[in-house]
Amino acid sequence: MASKRELEEFREFLQVHDNPPKFRYITKATRRAWLISCISVWLFIYFVYANQQLWLPSGDIFKNKHHHNHPSDPTAVLKRCRALEAKVELPSDFVNRKRSDRFEEGTRPILVQNARIWTGRKNGTHVFKGDVLLDKGLIKSIGYLSGGSLVEVYGTSLRVVNADGAWVTPGIVDVHSHIGVESAPYLKGAADGNSYHGIIQPWLRSLDGLNTHDLSYPLSIAGGVTTALVLPGSANAIGGQGFVMKIRETGEKSPSSMLLEPPYQINTSFPNPNLPSRWRHIKHACGENPSRVYQGTRMDTMWELRQAYNKAKQIKEKQDSYCSRAFARDWHDLGEFPEALDWEALVDVLRGKTKVNVHCYEAVDFDGIVRLSNEFKFPIAAFHHAAEAYLVPDLLKKTYGKTPAVALFATFSRYKREAYRASEFAPRILAESGIRVTMKSDHPSAIDSRYLSYEAQQAYFYGLPENLAIASITSQPAEVLGMGHRIGYIKEGYDADIVIWDSHPLALGATPTEVFIDGIPQLERAFVVEKPSNYQRRPPVPNFDKDAENAVVYEGLPPLQPRRSEAGSTVVFQNVGTMFQQRNGVVEQIQIAQGEGSGMIVTRNGTIICSDQCANLFDIGDANTKVINLDGGSISPGFVSYGSPLGLEHIKLEPSTNDGTIIDPLSRQVPKILGDFSIIRATDGLQFASRDALLAYRVGVTSAVTAPVSTGFYGGLSVAFSTGASHKLEKGAIIQEVTAVHIALNRQNKYSVSTQFAALRRLLQDPSEGEAGVWYKKVISGEIPLVAAVDSADIMATLIILKKEIELRNGKQIRLTITGGAEAHLLAKELAEANIGVLLPSKPFPMSWEGRRILPGPPISPRTALTELIENGVSVGILSQGSWEARNLPFDVTRAAIDSGGKLKKEEAFALGSTNVQRLLGVQIDEATVDLVATKGGDILSSSSRVAAILSPVREAVFFMDNN
After folding, report:
1. How much is the pLDDT for 615?
2. Which residues does the UniProt record annotate as the domain Amidohydrolase-related (predicted)?
């Protein structure tokens, strides 16, 4: 109750106020309770805000009623800012994982026993014989494992594979591929390699164009490829982001499910700060590509790159400033985090979280990119293509951060000016300079990644050490991709991606017998070609030390013209192991000595004048006699190249160096000066002494047949010429002025296939009286072959019918040859009955819809197209599809012979690249004047040999390849 004094005070209050408030009198106790409650509320608010780190520096948490644009979730902001500073690191528990994140339920454990295992450790030198256990998508154990003990653990679910001493390597890693975004067969509806909407587009992602129905996936797997970095194309200075993927089909059958450690940004605009950072990849390009596509120059491209990085730098600085205030709890007017969805990938480059892969060829371009990296302080993962990298290794080492790796082709070169100084010795030279080397495919436009091992084999042949050659397609690209913690090696805890080979991985023709990706077998039924036991050993290779030195001394352009013997001089070849000659249109082995490898051949003016039987009549110590020791080598006919514009071009993409493309009268009006129906002769456009021709000559491809370059139905007249000649007027330079008439029948031509056949039927039934008519009359009479570029079996079938019609009408057989012939095996019997020969590429690929039904050969099919045709009686030769490929014809012939599984004799293998090609293209040869190739250390099909000299009876000289 209130006291008397309190009641009196209350009455006085009522008397003073005219309109007193109507409220109950509040006692001291009530006021005390209210005060305590208020203080408690204030303390509670302070506690909550303090724990959320929202107190203001002034201490007045209600300083601004509306928080002056505070972040809506400050805690998330701080996490985001901390994530910006975090490095890309493995989760601490990754190395102890018990199962792969890519493991698919139902996958059986697999024990590979008795293997010769290349682990990748110790710089690729660690090899041992033992076993490998695969389970839960991982390599669970390596060493000497007891199958019996494991059966007790796994029971009948364990699959045991006896490698029987075969080589086992990690799965091949392709560091530069467009598989899935430039799909096979090529169709406009799946051409997603490049965007042409801007020279700078870091926001694009190859993942968004990844086609899961690309026909090349199983082919690449058949070559041992298990992982690839799928990049956008090189049209743009910044073409977009690339993604690392396993190329096996998954249960989900989606592009995302194929990815290996995808960055978390693929499912959200910005990364989850609670998750660890993962490597991202981005594609840059400099030089000719963006200049051509965007009609600019190198100056334009470099400015665009600098401008883009300056934009990214500004965004990064805004973010850093924002985070600096956030870390200081300065929330006043801070606002939201400065986002930039279109530039965030480039900002991540500057933060060291994105690996930059640069399409770059020449020193001028390397220099620009190196300066760019130092200006904006970001590292480069790898320079790709990098044709001149071996000439400027010290420049590459000036790149910001770690020296970039270099991703190379082995011999693919001179297709553009930037690649003109490329060298087959680049891999070894770069490795000797301490720079990491990876071989890559640029699939499918350059190299089919199925043959990525072939790139490593060539690099090894030309001097890259064995350990680094295998590493160049396994551990090194894995490291470049930032995936060296899980692929590229055979180690416990690594992904179960391994390949079992039928021979040493660097042996020409080495083919997988088993491929496992994530522990899942990829070859449902592997067809294995039996090979001799020596194929399991490291292949011996020639010594190219001097050649590699000259490549640098002459800045990529060493002299290629061989040294010619003096007129009238005698050249003696000692220790000749074998000799092959052309006789009656076939290649035969000639007996030259009683003891193997002890033969002697004596020549004068390029002609053999005697062998062992009369060699003792010559004084090999005479000053006018040169003696060459072939060390058990061989003398054989030179190979013949066909299928490329060899002799009509120096640099494919430089019009001023080429003969050009002929006019097709079916699709364009022919100028009046050419008459109604002219026909073009390749001989008129020949250019001698191109580097591609001379390189071919130096490896024993002594002649070539080349047709005019045509992009339509109508071809022209081909010519046969010497690849070693200096000019057209040199004796023996032109072997045959005209060899065949050429056409092309396909669905890429401007007019329909039926229209093309109507034109061909008219030409064969009623030739005009002009020059073209003269040559088509020769075709009708069988004097000269008609050579048709055809891939489709359907078109071939129509061609067979037309051939029969014309022959029935005229009573004479037409000599018809198919080139390309991707689907020729489907009509092997019919082609043989029609007496039609076929010139095939050595490495089939379903590039077009018309060629999608290829016969791939081992390990996918027991036969190749070549063996299928030969077994049905079809005459077959091998063609080269690019001028640069002519030099690889001996390799291609060797591989074809190996893939035949011993069904081809060595003489028949020689014919694939010589007599068969001549006959199918109408080259008439005086066999006594055929160029012969002298190889040292083995015959021309041996990986241990190299060409020592070429004997040319027509040119009346021996040409020495040592230039000494």
Report:
1. 61
2. 427-513
Q: Are 723 and 691 in contact (CB under 8 A)?
A: no
How far apart CA 936 and CA 949 sit, in angstroms, is: 9
The model carries a pTM of 0.91
Who's near 934: CB < 8 A, 6+ residues apart? 573, 601, 628, 630, 633, 634, 635, 947, 948, 949, 950, 951
Specify whether the CB–CB gap between 597 and 575 falls below 8 A: yes
Q: What is the pLDDT of residues 59-76, one digit of tens each?
A: 443 344 444 567 778 888
Cβ–Cβ < 8 Å for 284, 358: yes
Q: How far apart are CA 85 and CA 351, in angstroms?
A: 8
Task: Provide φ and ψ at 734, rounded to 5°.
Answer: -100, 120
Cα–Cα distance measured from residue 141 to residue 135, given in angstroms and rounded to the nearest whole number: 9
Q: How confident is the model at residue 618 (pLDDT cuts 50, 70, 90)?
A: low
Q: Model confidence over 369-409: pLDDT tens digits? A: 999 999 999 999 999 999 999 999 999 999 999 999 999 99
Higher pLDDT, 197 or 70: 197
Q: How many CB atoms lie within 10 A of CB 59?
A: 8
Tell me the three state secondary structure of residue 133: strand
Integer angstrom CA distances of residue 791 from 151, 389, 753, 852, 871? 51, 38, 13, 9, 20
Angle, CA 874 vertex, CA 871 and CA 879 arms, to 5°: 110
Q: In the prediction, which pLDDT does 622 show?
A: 72
Q: Which residues contact 762 (CB under 8 A, 6 or more apart)?
A: none
Q: 771-781 vs 753-765: helix axis angle to the nearest 10?
A: 80
Q: Residue 389: which of 403, 402, 375 has the closest Cα?
A: 403
What are the start-end ranges of the H helices in 433-573? Answer: 452-461, 466-471, 475-480, 545-553
315 pLDDT tier (thresholds 50, 70, 90): very high
Q: What is the 3-state secondary structure (H, E, C) of 54-70?
A: CCCCCCCCCCCCCCCCC
Of 612, 608, 540, give the one whose Cα is nearest residue 576. Answer: 612
Asked if residues 223 and 449 have their Cβ atoms less than 8 Å apart, the reply is yes
